[in-house]
């Protein structure tokens, strides 16, 4: 009976985690869309891929921080906001540097277009990004 209860609790936790992951993906769309839009417009204007990705990443950071804090992970605490901002900034810079490198490899070695590289990078980094974001916004023990 104990084993069955453990299994059912485990199954329920995974179900909740899967829902949260999909909510994370869904609520990432506004920041990602505006960030990607910024990248593509700036690339079209001739700014260059790296600078465009930095500016697009900043747009994504500002929007996504608030969306994930208050809606994805429902973290309402004001006490931890500064710490969360710093940690999320570190995550965003790491994500940005990884994205720049991955897009460069996908374009130069695999011959992909910029937009294809951007989309593949989002897919590949979604899981690690979710796990770190979840850790950043975890509720402190009460």
Termini distance?
A: 30 Å
Strand fraction: under 5%
Return Rg in Å. 18 Å
Q: What is the structural class?
A: mainly alpha
What does the average pLDDT come to? 90
Which series of helices and strands comes N to C?
HHHH
Shape: globular
Q: How many strands appear in the DSSP assignment?
A: 0
Helix content: over 70%
Runs in which pLDDT lies below 50 for 5 or more consecutive residues are none
The biggest sheet, with number of strands, parallel, antiparallel or mixed sense and barrel status, is:
none
Count of DSSP-assigned helices: 4
List keywords for this structure.
4 helices; mainly alpha
Written overview of the protein:
The structure is a single chain. By secondary structure, the chain is mainly alpha-helical. Helices cover 83% and strands 0% of the residues. It is built from four helices and no strands. The protein is globular and about 50 Å long. The two termini are 30 Å apart. The model has no long low-confidence stretch (mean pLDDT 90).
